[in-house]
């Protein structure tokens, strides 16, 4: 598994990097058969250290966890526990989907934009109705079954996931509803 371990405005020593690789390997290998890469970012907010970890699996799924503590090692350990808990919770489902899927997940390229939010102009009309694009990025849209898409959304903690449904031409969306259920948009 490839690791990318970094710190936002803090120095990450060799001992911490070794600890992260060792502990994350144990946690992930126990529940996921073929992880491809892991991204671990440490940062500091006031007196607390924050650890964010993202692990990409060969099935196309991504597991994310975030934790904070007053000590940097404790922040990572809490993050690793959350990651392990997520993967343990979905182990049976991951194995079932892995058996069904003979080929890797197909990814389509797409553009992703960040658009400026409407700012309160004090009752005045905006100069233009066209939204201002702040940033443009490239992203990937996975070809998944609906079950895999729901699992991916839950693993990543995202409120919404856009995906291409297997055997269909258009894009689909799954999202978390206010009542706690999952919504699915499947265009005709």
TrEMBL record:
Protein's cellular compartments: Cytoplasm
Occurrences of domain Sigma 54 modulation/S30EA ribosomal protein C-terminal (ranges): 130-183
Pfam family, one: Ribosomal_S30AE
GO molecular function (one): ribosomal small subunit binding
Keyword flag Cell division: no
One GO biological process term: negative regulation of translational elongation
Entries under InterPro entries matching the protein: HPF/YfiA_ribosome-assoc, HPF_long/plastid, RHF-like, RHF/RaiA, Ribosom_S30AE_C, Ribosom_S30AE_C_sf
Keyword Ribonucleoprotein: yes
Record-linked CDD domains: RaiA
Domain of life: Bacteria
A single Gene Ontology CC term: cytosolic small ribosomal subunit
Keyword annotations: Cytoplasm, Ribonucleoprotein, Ribosomal protein, Translation regulation
Regions annotated as coiled coil: none
Functional description taken from the UniProt entry: Required for dimerization of active 70S ribosomes into 100S ribosomes in stationary phase; 100S ribosomes are translationally inactive and sometimes present during exponential growth.
PANTHER family: 30S RIBOSOMAL PROTEIN
Subunit structure, as described in the record: Interacts with 100S ribosomes. Associates exclusively with 100S ribosomes, which are dimers of 70S ribosomes.
Family affiliation: Belongs to the HPF/YfiA ribosome-associated protein family. Long HPF subfamily.
Name of this protein: Ribosome hibernation promoting factor
Protein source organism: Sulfitobacter guttiformis
Lineage: Bacteria, Pseudomonadati, Pseudomonadota, Alphaproteobacteria, Rhodobacterales
